[in-house]
Amino acid sequence: MTSPITKSSLPPERISSTPPTPYPAALYAAVHTGQPGDVAFYRRICAGARDVLELGCGFGRIARPLGDDGVSVTGVDLDAALLELGRKRAPRATLLEADFRTLDLGRTFERIVCPFNGLYCLTSEADLLQTLRGVRDHLRPDGLFAFDVYDADEFHLADDEEDDLPGLVATCDALGTEWEVFEHSHWDRRKQRIDAVYTHVPHDDRARVVASIPQRYLLSSQVESLLAEAGLELLALHRDFDEKPHDVDDPYLLVGTARRATDA
User: Fold this and answer.
1) Which strands sit side by side in the sheet containing 167-174, from one edge to the other?
2) Are residues 105 and 53 in contact, defined by beta-carbon separation less than 8 angstroms?
3) In which element (H, E) is residue 257 found?
4) Which of 2, 49, 91, 142 is deepest in the core (most CB within 10 A)?
5) What CATH number should be reported for the domain holding residue 102?
6) Does a structural domain hold residue 198?
7) How far apart are CA 105 and CA 74, in angstroms?
């Protein structure tokens, strides 16, 4: 194994020069491990529910503990390789390869969850509204929808719109070696668009892996109106998984719960 490659020895131009490729599932799973407290939050939200639909279930990070709690979990995701990992990790769950923008499972659920910025993967307002209307249609009248995304309010109002410089965000073991993971992003304020680029630098002689995750973020002021347009009623919007009131002076997360609107 070669010596570790540090941020100081890897200039920004060398980090970002490789074009993005499809994200290897094992590497994604090693890097994107969620937010502290999110698993406990979704277990609380789903406690006592008979069945749960998870949008963007990926490699089963949330589905497994819910299944361990005795909840019947149906998860959907578009990434077949992540789903393969998820079926091994969460064998009690039913994980389906499907597009949750056009989902029609012909049934309803007591809980629907969309963790870890899943709503931001919908890169147009039309896609987001279509998905939220699908949530309404799959949610029982007494059911609950829960989600979490990062709070974009502060940086959206920043004076300068510019791309981030690469920064070291993680180290991990995957695919038989250690990796250092650098992140930078391309930002379009007008479109509320962030393209997060992850450069994975191995500690052996294999090629680095560059993968991009496109996102369209929301402002806290937009969340309630978009839910309402889709026939959902916002119940609460918190700033972290401890369910404290959202405070724009202390931005971190937007953690929301909603139900079907009574007039939808």
Assistant:
1) 167-174, 177-188, 193-202, 209-216
2) yes
3) strand 253-260
4) 49
5) 3.40.50.150
6) yes
7) 10
* Alpha carbon distance 138, 118 (integer Å): 17
Tell me the two tokens of residue 35. Answer: 């937010």
Taking the alpha carbons at both ends of the chain, their separation in whole angstroms is: 59
> How far is it, in rounded angstroms, from Cα 2 to Cα 179?
11
For residue 73, tell me if it sits in a domain.
yes
CA distance 1 to 234: 52
State the residue range of the domain holding 12. 7-20+154-216
Q: Is residue 1 part of a domain?
A: no
Element housing 128 (H / E): helix 125-138
Per-residue pLDDT of the chain (264 residues; tens, 9 = 90+): 233 334 434 555 555 567 888 999 999 999 999 999 999 999 999 999 999 999 999 999 999 999 999 999 999 999 999 999 999 999 999 999 999 999 999 999 999 999 999 999 999 999 999 999 999 999 999 999 999 999 999 889 887 766 677 899 999 999 999 999 999 999 999 999 999 999 999 999 999 999 999 999 999 999 999 999 999 999 999 988 986 665 545 557 999 999 999 865
Handedness of CA 126, 129, 131, 134 (dihedral sign): negative
Beta strand extents in 84-138 (DSSP E only): 94-97, 109-114
Check whether residue 97 and residue 42 sit in a common domain: yes
Q: What is the pTM of this model?
A: 0.91
Tell me if 43 is assigned to some domain.
Answer: yes
